């Protein structure tokens, strides 16, 4: 900050706006605030203190708008960030008291056309209370939409389709979830039949005398706003969210301290009793456990021992915002601190104010700060050591609104973990830990959604070991930048990869396509009947080809095949061998020839793999084909029919079979039945 700016700020601090002058108890804190704003270049801070139903100090320091030299006042409207939650929850509870909503009813009962989806547990168990206390199973989420960028938030129905997915069973754990309050504000709109902003004005702000409070900033109140400043001291453009109920409220410190007094059941004469005292008590009571002393109720944190006293509070933090509102019900004390910059100053000031008012708090805080200053730096966590249940290879998918993507995970005995999404580079998982049955780590990749790709990000894995499955969240968290980014979570589910893949679900042609070019042009009907895949006779050929992932070496194929009718080959199995292809023929050239086409340019009837078998129509045969780096082997039932060393051999297929690549099954003037198709990766010994 240059000397000109510093001089002007000194003048502003000297003329800071005060409604209730700080008494001598707060003089030192007041001086510290003035000095901190100068030292840290923090634009402004507003504070308010209430004791026994009376506001004993409210004052604003610094600039609400530094560029236009607008000083902060006690009526300046600050973005509250997550202090929006207890305010939204207060509005929610007015509808509960009227019997229009029930905290213990499934949230989906109030959504109808845009439902929450459960990947774990049952969505019907996710109640309004679960949304309000962050135990619904919704994952980490925040998403910003800036007015100077082309991205606009979708309507709430679409947002719920994308992110209304439970990654834990309702009630299983506490997970702070902004999107839960986005769903709450949507339910409020649907129930009250008015916009969330209008409802909050009519049901909360006006009845409580909060004249400088609103959802976002209506045009008539914009002149009161505190500009949000980014990490480089730059004004941030206005931004919105897909979770307004969690983050979108603006309020002045004058209004917020009175909201705090209402929740201390010490409302003034200008405030209406919009909630019964017993309802306020129920909001404050923790119904979700965070740790031994910290819990969460309906919109409020409950700390059973904050430096020796019980507090009910909420903080807020995001780009250009740091706020705190803390209540001490047993002492009838409320403190509010608001700032338009991301800094710890509001939190420290709130602690200092409580310490000045409460002797036992002061002593505990003093000792805590002494201990913190003498505590060694962060101790490195011990190296990750995988448990036997984790060791090995895992495979599965990450599910996004844009579709699913294949994921592979390799957990090695050394503790190294590698992860790969689709055909992207295999990445090392960093910052790995395994606590309470959850595997966590960070890596660089691309989940393939436009929402996530608006900003550079790293992917954060949080997956719970559930029996033989590993599932949970892949959260894309934006890298630090000049403006706040996003955290968007997508469901990931993995299973141990024993190398086995089923190629036929017994119900459909999923994963297969019908071959049509060349000799397959006049193919027969392809159908599924009672767990059997049927290929009717073509003129001359009928075939199918696999469209899924496929190894090119070191694998084994198994299937059951039957010649239903006809007298030529009923199984022409085309398969990859490294960069080449080959076809295993069963029942060709009059019905009995077996062998590989082609070896050194010679077909199955004229090379070293040629053999003859009697195949009965209507009988099932079990077929195994094994392809390794040095051999092709094949069995029919227990009889080995091929054992070919491939070194120095030229492998190929007839041009008629090319449409069946990379893996296909065809017949020739016959009807074929297939079942139990599977693929198994094999591990060959290292020479």
Could you describe the 3D structure shown?
By secondary structure, the chain is an alpha+beta fold. The protein has 4 domains: 3-48 and 59-71; 78-374, Beta-lactamase; 392-497, Lipocalin, CATH 2.40.128; 502-681, Exo-inulinase, domain 1 (Jelly Rolls). The chain has 12 helices and 41 strands. The strands form 7 sheets. Strands 1, 2, 3, 4, 12, 13, 14, 15, 16 and 17 form a 10-stranded antiparallel sheet that branches. Strands 21-20-19-18-26-25-24-23-22 form a 9-stranded antiparallel sheet, with no helix packed on it. Strand 34 and strand 35 form a beta hairpin. The longest helix is centred in the middle third of the chain and has 16 residues, at 359-374. Mean pLDDT is 94; it is low at 1-15.
Task: Name the features.
Lipocalin; ten-stranded antiparallel beta sheet; Beta-lactamase; 19% helix; disordered N terminus; 687 residues; alpha+beta; nine-stranded antiparallel beta sheet
């Amino acid at each position: 900050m240059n000397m000109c700016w510093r001089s002007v700020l000194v003048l502003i601090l000297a003329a800071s706006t005060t409604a209730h002058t700080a008494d001598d108890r707060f003089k030192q804190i007041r001086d510290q605030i003035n000095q901190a704003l100068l030292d840290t270049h923090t634009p402004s801070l507003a504070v308010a203190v209430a004791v026994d139903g009376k506001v004993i100090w409210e004052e604003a320091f610094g600039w609400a708008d530094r560029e236009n030299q607008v000083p902060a006042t006690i009526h300046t409207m600050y973005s509250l960030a997550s202090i929006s939650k207890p305010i939204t929850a207060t509005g929610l509870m007015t509808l509960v008291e009227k019997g229009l909503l029930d905290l213990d009813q499934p949230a989906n009962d109030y959504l109808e056309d845009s439902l929450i989806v459960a990947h774990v547990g049952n969505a019907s168990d996710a109640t309004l209370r679960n949304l309000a206390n962050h135990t619904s199973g919704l994952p980490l989420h925040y998403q910003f939409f800036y007015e100077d960028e082309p991205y606009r938030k979708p309507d709430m129905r679409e947002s719920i389709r994308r992110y209304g997915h439970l990654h834990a069973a309702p009630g299983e754990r506490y997970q702070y979830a902004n999107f839960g309050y986005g769903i709450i504000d949507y339910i409020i709109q649907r129930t009250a039949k008015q916009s969330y902003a209008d409802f909050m004005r009519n049901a909360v702000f006006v009845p409580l005398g909060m004249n400088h409070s609103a959802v976002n900033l209506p045009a008539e109140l914009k002149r009161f706003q505190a500009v949000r400043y980014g990490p480089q001291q730059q004004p941030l453009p206005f931004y919105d969210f897909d979770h307004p109920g969690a983050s979108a409220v603006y309020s002045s410190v004058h209004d917020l301290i009175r909201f705090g007094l209402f929740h201390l059941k010490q409302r003034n004469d200008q405030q209406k009793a919009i909630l019964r005292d017993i309802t306020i008590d129920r909001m404050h009571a923790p119904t979700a456990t965070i740790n031994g002393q910290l819990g969460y109720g309906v919109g409020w944190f409950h700390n059973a021992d904050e430096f020796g006293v019980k507090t009910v509070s909420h903080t807020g933090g995001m780009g250009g915002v740091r706020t705190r509102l803390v209540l001490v019900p047993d002492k009838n004390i409320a403190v509010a601190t608001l700032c338009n910059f991301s800094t710890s100053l509001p939190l420290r000031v709130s602690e200092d104010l409580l310490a000045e008012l409460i002797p036992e708090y002061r002593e505990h805080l003093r000792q805590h700060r002494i201990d913190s200053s003498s505590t060694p730096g962060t101790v490195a966590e011990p190296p990750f050591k995988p448990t036997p249940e984790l060791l090995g290879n895992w495979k599965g998918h990450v599910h996004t609104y844009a579709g699913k993507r294949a994921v592979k995970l390799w957990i090695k005995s050394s503790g190294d973990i590698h992860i790969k999404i689709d055909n992207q580079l295999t990445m090392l998982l960093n910052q790995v830990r395994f606590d309470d049955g959850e595997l966590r780590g960070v890596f660089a990749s691309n989940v393939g959604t436009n929402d996530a790709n608006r900003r550079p990000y790293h992917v954060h894995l949080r997956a719970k070991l559930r029996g033989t499955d590993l599932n949970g969240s892949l959260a894309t968290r934006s890298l630090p930048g000049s403006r706040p980014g996003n955290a968007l979570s997508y469901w990931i589910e993995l299973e141990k990869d024993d190398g086995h893949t089923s190629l036929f679900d017994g119900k459909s042609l999923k994963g297969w396509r019908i071959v049509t070019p060349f000799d397959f042009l006049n193919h027969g009907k392809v159908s599924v009947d009672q767990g059997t895949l049927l290929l009717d006779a073509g003129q001359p050929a009928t075939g199918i080809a696999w469209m899924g992932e496929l190894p090119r070496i070191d694998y084994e194929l198994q299937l059951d095949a039957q010649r239903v009718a006809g007298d030529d080959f009923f199984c022409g199995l085309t398969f990859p061998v490294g960069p080449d292809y080959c076809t295993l023929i069963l029942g060709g050239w009059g019905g009995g020839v077996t062998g590989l086409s082609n070896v050194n340019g010679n077909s199955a009837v004229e090379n070293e793999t040629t053999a003859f078998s009697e195949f009965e129509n209507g009988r099932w045969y079990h077929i195994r084909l094994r392809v390794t780096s040095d051999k092709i082997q094949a069995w029919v039932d227990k009889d080995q029919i091929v054992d070919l060393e491939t070194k120095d051999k030229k492998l190929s297929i007839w041009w008629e079979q090319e449409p069946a690549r990379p893996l296909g099954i065809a017949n020739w003037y016959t009807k074929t039945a297939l079942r139990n198709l599977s693929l198994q990766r094999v591990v060959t010994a290292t020479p």
